[in-house]
Write a structure and sequence with these properties.
- 73% of the residues lie in helices and 0% in strands.
- The protein contains 30 helices and no strands.
- By secondary structure, the chain is mostly helical.
Length: 548
């Protein structure tokens, strides 16, 4: 071997890969393709669906997340900012030639996808905020290309996920506060208005936007106040007006319930933007038919819950009354469909207190008693459970409605209610005492359990007493109080036959009026001296107790 041959000689190498190292693609897409090749059972990256590719992205990001630090985040945001700036420059320069800036938009979309890794490291959110990541994200949400917008929506949805936020609450809240400061709710409403649900990707994106709203309100309940200010509440109500059922409509019903539960202001404003009428119209579709699927049934329950929440605000009672809400609920009681149990709950909310006087009068005018007392006489059992209620909840709502009517009715209307307890040889009094004895036994059982628990405690403070009282209420004391209010009301109405029947039935079971007096005295004391209404109610109950 001469000198030239010696210089040209190359030793044989045992290469592990057929592909030369010079051909390795170190781009993000290249890493995805190599990741796909690691498992033989996987498809080639080019043959994967969008969902499979997304799963691969998340898997790759998990592999890289442990390596992430502050410098990685800064570099990531800087790269995204460069891609965005380049895209904006090309868009301005070639406004009429989209083919010249499309490549930059693909690069921007890919770069946004890389940032999904951030969602695995909430402790680094402050770095994202301090290096301008929030304003960049909001700029992406306002991008003319909806593919870019959907990528930013997905990223923000992952960043604000409640499980992720709770991992590092203080750090994650810095991101939430920055989003709020930059009026994220207003931007999200603009995104919702721009998306076309006929496109499957945009429909999914809309679902993610609603998810962001839920995540943000869960992290900061005060943010729900912005829902009305920025038009989100109006958008949700308009979306609920759309005929038919789909997953986004279900999510809108959930968001509505969340926004109303979190904010008294939203409940007040609801009536001003025709929210009560919108919910009544949406629910009217189910007065004679049941929801077709479980998710649709969940949506109907969300709407009923939202209606109940709205009735906590007095001004909405009048709107509910004028919108024929009482008539609709009574009709639902008659039809005996899935909407029957939640209709009882709505009536319970609508008729309570002094603000429910007009609704109580309307309830009598539309012959509500003929629909209510069949509910009182028999609990539907399995049908109640299918409607999302327990049997105890059913009895609670029915007895609460009767007690509201006894408080708020007068004159001939009150006499019509009293006649219900006289007719059919006092059949409804029999049912009333039957329920009283059932719930009284439950109360005695839980009282014994609490007494035994107290013996084991060295000291019982006020908080512990409150805990015991709540336990008694949950066991049925609340319903027993409603039942006993009905008993003392009808027994002090001057109808001797009712009093005689009550005493006779109690004696047959070895009981007296004593426990009724004790329970109602305790209830009157629990009202306290909060205001004039509470004092008036307390005085009224004590007067009836003394008359027994």
């Amino acid at each position: 071997m001469d000198i030239e041959e010696l210089l040209d000689f190359q030793p044989t190498r045992n290469l592990k890969r057929d592909r030369p190292t010079d051909d390795v693609d170190n781009s993000y897409e290249g890493m995805l393709k190599r990741k796909a090749m690691e498992a033989p059972q996987r498809k080639k990256y080019e043959d994967m669906t969008d969902e499979e590719r997304l799963a691969l992205v998340m898997e790759l990001d998990e592999d890289k997340s442990d390596e992430m630090d502050e410098s990685t985040v800064k570099k990531m945001i800087l790269n995204l900012e460069k891609k965005y700036a380049k895209n904006q420059e090309l868009r301005i320069k070639h406004t009429e030639q989209p083919e010249k800036f499309m490549d930059s938009e693909v690069e921007l979309h890919i770069e946004t996808g890389k940032c999904l890794t951030l969602a695995t490291q909430p402790r680094l959110y402050p770095v994202l905020v301090h290096c301008g990541g929030v304003k960049l994200l909001l700029s992406l949400l306002s991008h003319p290309n909806n593919d870019i917008v959907l990528g930013a929506v997905e990223l923000l949805h992952e960043l604000t996920d409640s499980d992720v936020v709770n991992e590092a609450l203080d750090d994650a809240m810095e991101l939430v506060e920055a989003l709020v400061k930059n009026e994220i709710m207003s931007v999200l409403v603009q995104v919702l208005e721009s998306l076309d649900e006929k496109n499957d990707d945009e429909a999914k994106g809309l679902h993610n936007v609603l998810g962001i709203v839920e995540n943000l309100v869960e992290a900061d309940p005060n943010l729900s106040e912005d829902a009305f200010k920025h038009g989100l509440l109006t958008w949700v109500l308009n979306r609920l007006k759309v005929r038919g059922f789909d997953q986004n409509k279900l999510y809108c019903s959930e968001i509505l319930a969340i926004l109303l539960q979190s904010s008294e202001s939203n409940r007040t404003q609801l009536g001003n933007i025709e929210g009560i009428d919108t919910m009544l119209q949406a629910l009217a579709l189910y007065k004679r038919r049941n929801p077709q699927v479980t998710e649709e049934q969940e949506m109907v329950h969300n709407l009923f819950d939202s209606l109940c929440l709205s009735l906590l605000t007095n001004v909405n009672r009048d709107i509910f009354l004028k919108g024929e809400g009482v008539e609709l609920m009574v009709l639902m009681l008659r039809e005996k469909k899935m909407s029957r149990p939640p209709a009882l709950k709505v009536l319970n909310f609508a008729l309570q207190g002094d603000e429910g006087i007009n609704c109580c009068a309307k309830f009598l005018d539309v012959y509500g008693l003929s629909s209510l007392f069949p509910c009182f006489m028999k609990t539907p059992g399995k049908k109640v459970k299918r409607g999302g209620f327990s049997e105890m909840e059913w009895v609670e709502h029915v007895t609460s409605i009767i007690s509201h009517l006894l408080r708020n009715l007068s004159g001939s209307q009150l006499q019509r209610l009293m006649n219900k307890f006289i007719e059919e040889d006092h059949l409804k009094v029999d049912r009333l005492i039957e329920l009283h004895l059932f719930y009284l036994n439950r109360a005695k059982t839980v009282d014994k359990e609490i007494a035994a628990e107290k013996l084991q405690l060295d000291e019982i403070d006020e908080d512990k007493e409150d805990e015991f009282y709540i336990k008694r209420l949950d066991a049925g004391l609340f319903t027993l109080q409603r039942l006993n209010y009905i008993i003392i009301s009808i027994c002090t109405a001057g109808i001797s036959s009712i009093v005689d029947r009550v005493k006779q039935l109690l004696q047959l079971k070895g009981e007296t009026l004593g426990p009724i007096r004790d329970i109602m005295s305790e209830y009157a004391d629990s009202l306290g001296d909060k205001d004039n209404k509470a004092n008036e109610e307390k005085l009224n109950i004590n007067q009836m107790i003394n008359q027994l």
